[in-house]
Amino acid sequence: MIPKSSVLLIEDEENIRSFIATTLKNQNYKITTASCGTEGLHLCASLCPDVVLLDLGLPDMDGIDVIKKLREWSCVPIIVISARTHEQEKAKALDLGADDYITKPFGTVELLARIRTSLRHSNQLNAGNNAGLLAYHHGDLVVNYEKHLVTLKGEMIHLTQIEFKLLSLLAKNSGKVLTYSYIMEKIWGPYVDNNNQILRVNMANIRRKIEKNPAAPEHVFTEIGIGYRMAEGDQSL
Ligand code: CA
Fold first, then answer.
1. Per the structure, how many domains does the chain have?
2. Is the CA virtual torsion 119, 121, 125, 127 positive or negative?
3. 145-181 pLDDT per residue, tens
């Protein structure tokens, strides 16, 4: 078998480190581990991994500072490993350049899905493909970027311009969490105030139009305190 991508894991808790290492080895990933931030940064520079898994609570430095340092020279996808209660920390990590996060305790399926999504996004970016995407498909929902059309079960859904922009942004990044502040800036520009009300209103309208039951969405999920994640779909080129 050809080895899959290489993963660098920076995590000080030994049981989590060995759980992740075993899981990824079984899936044929090449895995290297570091138990503190300094070691992680050194290994990242020498190995140039395809993905970094980063615990935010490290003994020698704050994981947030590891992200800042890495982002000075590397655009490797970073998936943050964090505790359930630290929403603000997760949002900050994402806004500083982390690509995604996974909440402890997590299972194998979720871990592998996050890694696959990050690899897919970084490959798309490297290939400069993102701009050439034509449409997103997930279940009955199609978001056609080129024609500015959204259909559900083949029926056209009428969206306002802002709603369409918002849904397209999420669809192009499907599988990945986008923070409130990232979305606000992308849709309303850098000078928008950081009150999310306008975003919530638009999202509620979108959900009313595309979800069977807006309270139990199938397409766009809320990541409480952080942002939104659209279900991973197929992109056509
Ligand atoms: Ca830790």
1. 2
2. positive
3. 989 999 999 999 999 999 999 999 999 999 999 999 9
The angle formed by the CA atoms of residues 23, 26 and 29, to the nearest 5 degrees, is 85
**Model confidence at 129, in pLDDT bands (50, 70, 90)?**
low
11 CA to centre of ligand 1 in angstroms:
6
Q: Are residues 109 and 29 in the same domain?
A: yes
Structure tokens at 43: 């290994």
Examine residue 14 and state whether it is found in any structural domain, yes or no. yes
Q: Are 144 and 155 in contact (CB under 8 A)?
A: no
pTM for this entry? 0.81
| Residues 105 and 155 occupy one common structural domain | no
- Mark whether 11 and 105 lie in a shared domain: yes
With respect to residue 195, please indicate whether it lies within any of the assigned structural domains: yes
Calculated CA dihedral for residues 211, 212, 214, 220, nearest 10 degrees: -30
Distance from the CA of 12 to the center of ligand 1, in angstroms? 5
In a domain, 1, yes or no: no
What is the distance between the alpha carbons of residues 188 and 42, in angstroms, rounded to a whole number? 39
List the one residue out of 147, 172, 217, 177 whose CA is nearest residue 78: 177
Output the six-digit token pair for 133: 């995407």
Q: What is the 183 CA–ligand 1 centroid distance (Å)?
A: 29
Residue with tokens 């970094």: 52
Between the CA of 115 and the centroid of ligand 1 the distance, in Å, is: 20
Ligand 1 centre from 158 Cα, in Å?
Answer: 47
